[in-house]
Amino acid sequence: EDEQIVGEIMGRRFFPDVIAYKAWEGFHFAGHEIRITEATDCYGAVVWPSALVLCYFLETNSKQYNLVDKNVIEIGAGTGLVSIVASLLGAFVTATDLPELLGNLQHNVLQNTKQKCKHQPCVKELSWGIDLEKNFPRSSCHFDYIMAADVVYHHPFLDELLLTFDHLCNNDTVILWAMKFRLENENRFVDRFQTLFDLEMISNFPSLNIALYKAMRKSRMKA
């Protein structure tokens, strides 16, 4: 079953027949052909398998996780694929990443959502742990969903990442988080994450070493 579903997920990706001036990959999600421009010199500008897993989940579980008119933020949006799919599924999306990635992110989001979405998504800078209250004040920012794909890997900002999750998450916010396990670092972060949030694995793909989680603030998930 794992191999069958993984085959379906990876089958959503296609490549150009002719090599173009700018490298791009294509994807089929939410009834649209999505073209993503990548930059191979930067981790954040490449589509990783965790993003495909999360997009596939959003599309195939759109009744249970209805995004229409929901307020969604994606952290570490990278190329913007997850944000684009969430937008095509009817959400009002804020796609965030580091300043050096915003140009490519904005290009992809605009190219794939203009005149196709109920709500035009916005792109905004978010450096984990920095100026969170200034840029995303708790009094006015309420997100129904936080999306994250492959944000935990070998980097020194795990404390800041946890702080960012905590700041953006209200009592009724649902976190949907796809993660590829590579090193012990990932396991330690999951343990720390669970001190603040109830965590439920909702999909698992052993052949990809990727798990998809749903999380909410402690004690809110069961309620």
Summarize the structure in words.
This protein is an alpha/beta fold and about 220 residues long. The protein has one domain: 3-Layer(aba) Sandwich (Rossmann fold). Helices cover about 30% and strands about 25% of the residues. It is built from 7 helices and 10 strands. The protein has helices spanning about 1-10, 50-60, 80-90, 100-115, 130-135, 160-170, 185-195; strands spanning about 15, 25-30, 30-35, 70-75, 90-95, 120-125, 145-150, 175-180, 195-205, 210-215. The chain has a 7-stranded mixed sheet with strand order 6-5-4-7-8-10-9. The longest helix has 12 residues, at about 50-60. The model has no long low-confidence stretch (mean pLDDT about 90).
Short description:
By secondary structure, the chain is an alpha/beta fold.
Features:
single chain, 223 residues, alpha/beta, Rossmann fold, 7-stranded mixed beta sheet, 7 helices, 10 strands, 30% helix, transferase, SAM-dependent_MTases_sf, methyltransferase activity, methyltransferase
